[in-house]
Structures are given as C-alpha cells and as structure tokens.
Amino acid sequence: MLVELADLDAVLALHASLVRTPLAGVHEIVPAARTLMLRFDPARWSRQTLAAALAQCDLSGATSDRGPSVEIPMRYDGEDLAEVAQLCGLSVDEVIRRHGAREYTVAFCGFSPGFGYLVGGDPMLQVPRRSTPRTRVPAGSVALGGVYCGVYPQASPGGWQLIGTTSIPMWHVERTTPAILTPGTRVKFVERDSVPSIEITPKEKSLIEPYLKVTAAALPALVQDLGRPGHAAIGVTASGALDRGSLRAANAMVGNPPDVAALEIALGNFACEIFGDTEIALAGAAVPIIVTRASGEIFDAVMQKAIGLRSGDRVKLGYPPRGVRTYLAVRGGFDAPKILGSSSSDVLAALGPAPLVKGSLVSIGRGSVERATTASRPAPSAPHAAQTLPKSDDVVVLDIFAGPRADWFGSGVLENFCTQVWRVTPRSNRVGLRLHGETPLMRQRTEELPSEGLTSGAIQVPHDGQPVLLLADHPVTGGYPVIAIVAEHHLDLAGQIPPSAKIRFRMLADL
Questions:
Q1: Is residue 338 part of a domain?
Q2: Beta 307-309 vs 502-507: how paired, if at all?
Q3: What is the 3-class SS of 160-199, one letter each residue?
Q4: Which of 4, 32, 64, 250 has minimal Cβ neighbours within 10 Å of its Cβ?
Q5: Chain segment 363-393, per-residue pLDDT in tens
C-alpha cells in the first residue's frame, strides 16, 4: 500500500507513530518525500481495514521524537562549491558557515544502501540538481539537491551539487549496524582540515573442502537465496533469487531447506569443478548437463534430479532454449557470508558475495540439510504451472494491477498499455526489464514526482514513455510514476523472460 500524505512533515509524523505503536501484520514501512509504502499480511488486513487503522494513528507530538546524533567531519572541497555559492547569491565562506550551523535529520533513505535524505538545512542553500548528472560521484561526497543534503555511501551516478567530502564510511557491512544514517538520525557536519580515514578490515575465511571452482562462465554467476526483506528503511532492497520457485525446487532435490543459498546462472554456458564429495540439483531454465568424472567417464544428467558427485568431477551446462536463469543447488548450500541475514548478491547496491567468474571459488556448507532420502524428495515438476518458460520470440502474458500513479497518464493510456505488445530489450538485467513499444506512454501530468517507495513488479514510466518492469535488485525509492504492478504470482515468470521476448499485460480487478 502506498499512503500519500500532504508533505514530508506528515510522512515523518505517521512513520514515527507506526514505529512507536506498530500495527501487527505490517512487515515493512518505507518513508519517502510525500508517501509511506507499507508491506502487509493480507491474511490480517485488507487495504480498506488497513487504511481505516492508519486514519486512527496518533500523530500528535510524533515529529518531536529525537533519534540518535552523529557528527560527520568533512572538508569543504566539492567541485560544485563555487557554483552553489553563485546560485545562492552568497560567498563560499558563507555557504560553509550556513551548512555547518544546522542540525540535519534523516527523513528517509533510498537511492542506495546508507544514502540518507537529510532535511533541516538552511533555506538559503536550496539549489537545483545538476541539469546533466555525473556518471560517477566518489564515495563520501557531501552534496545538496533541492531541500535535501546527502552523503554518497559508494561511488555511483548522481546529479546533486557537490560541496565537500568525508572519509567516514556511511555504509559498511562489517559494522554491527551497516548504515550510519537511518531515519530519524540527527546529523551535524563539522569542518576539519584533515579527516582521518577509517578502514574496516573484512573477516578472512579459509577455504576447505568441499568447495566449487568455476572453470567457465559466459556471464557471472550469482549467489542467491530468498533475499533480505525488511531493510528498505535503510535503503536496502530484498534482492534474492528472481525465480524463487525454482530456487526452492533445486534446494528440495538435495534435501536443503528452501532458503539455502544456491547459484543463479543466467543463460547457461557455465562449467565448474567440485572438490569434495557432494550432491547437486538444477531447476529453472532447462539446460543440457554434461558430467565428466575424475576417472574420465562422461554422461548426460537431467534437470530437477539429484546428481551425486565426487571430488574432481566436472559439470558443464549448455544454453537454455527457454527461460534465462538456472539454479544450481548443492547439498548443504553454498557457505557465503551473510549480510543483513542473507547471502544474496545485489547487483545494484553491490551487496553480498562478488559475482562468480572463471577461477572463482565458493565453499560448500555442511549444515542446514533436511533429513530427506532420495525416495522422499519431491518429484520433478514444471517450474511454472501456468505456462512453460518463454523463448526469445514468445509473447508472455503477465497479470497486473493498476499502479498508484495510473492517474498520471491521459485517457486511454492504461488501455493502450495493456493492448499493445512490449519487447524486452537487451539492456534488461536483475534491476529491471527495459521494455519498448511502438506507442510510448504519454503522461497527463508532467511535473516531477517526489521520490517514493518501490516494490518488485512495479512498472515505472520514465520521460521517454518506455516502461521499466522492476525486478529484485530495484532501487528502494524512485521518482518515475508507477503505472501498474505485476501480480505476485507472475514475478518468478517475469524473472525468466529472455531479451527479445514480448510481453502483453492483462489487467486484473483491483483487490
């Protein structure tokens, strides 16, 4: 549910009220500029009953709640500092004085993990974003954009005006709390000529048998489990396997619990060698499987069936004629480090284990194995009962609900969205499917939309009118209107649609 409020103060008041007096069955709250996005249990709430409960929330005094205080040392050496002074009609020294004199508050997080939108700055320092965003802003850059101030936690594209730098890491997974800036945190910037750099040394881990070595990978393979939900408030999306059903199926074949980490392999053409005796299974996009024993024996294996392997055995996967992603599970799971409770690789936020390329090694775990015999394990089944996985020239039908910003588009645009066929472009990835249609979707409202919460399956419409269907590694917040949302029962299928395939959207009755 997306709750729209009058302004940021109202958002902060409602968010503080829900933190102080939580509603049972509301799993996640994502504050943004003028909205709160809530993820809730439909067994406990309908949207009507939840809306009624929200209307009863006590907002009196909520905005006076004070969060923790942090001090950020910085140098005012940003390359846009002189331009900011000119835009504000102030001297550089006065910009520095005014910026350092205020106490800021983290209103909400988004854009990337640990990026806090800070409010409470001097009104004289409100400057527009750059007309042309930079392709790379260094980590630690302190910047201004509109009414907000922010610190870039990692190198990334960005369009805010850079006024300085800090070497204090805003985000580091080795800390107990990875993000320094969380909603409600009070921030004071302190000018220092020399800002000490803080290094956090990653924990080292020895690699012992059993483990897997990647010997070929046309595209990097990713470690994925069921993700890390519940951290959107600090700018971290759930991530996790794009085809969760296939991940669960592969794990079941080797006796693992459903949430154990496996490899997500896009478009096949992958090979590995096993060190130590183990058992693997593959589900999802079907690929040819060739096993070469250490003894030299070669045989074909099949999908959705456990394959016993001995140390030195090699496995080679071909190209999938249908679908995109194949999941390789190993008995005991892959022993990858957990960040915020998950081993998933998030490609947008650069969280989780590094992508696996030729020469990469990954440990195989020894625990978390269900007591399941081969006879008791699930029988092979179609990964998607509604339809088989699509080929590159197929038309895939995805069920959708109207999005919260469908009213931003003119009469007939939603109908046009559902009647025309959209092609999946090669620029698609785990962040989202970029779509192209003959008739772009034209907005009726052309003003900028303040950033608001996003969810997997949301279909955003950028200025060019060509939609983007967001997948598991989507940003937590965004400023393009969402015209529709893919029904949850088709999210796995969306993650298996290959480039050049086409999509037709089918509107369902509202919940």
A1: yes
A2: unpaired
A3: CEEEEECCCCCECCCCCCCECCCCCCEEEEEECCCCCCCC
A4: 64
A5: 998 754 444 444 445 444 444 443 589 999 9
